[in-house]
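Board notes (copied after class):
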Amino acid sequence: MGGIGVTELLIIAAIVVLLFGTKKLRSMGSDLGSAVKGFRKAMDEDPAETQREKPDETPQKSASSAQNNHQDKE
């Protein structure tokens, strides 16, 4: 009584196809698929690997600022 049945879903799908057309729906499906693929790839990445990349940038910045501080004292 309160749920959406198969018949209602088919009617909604037919209306969506009429509004957008099959080419647009195919394009939107492809875009959605690549977005999901990219999201899954990002979720599967090793967090330790991303943490290793971040500290590499930090010492370079602190080393250059340490050199600047040393030059200021002279």
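Comment from the instructor: The chain has a mean pLDDT of 78. Residues 47-73 form the longest helix (27 residues).
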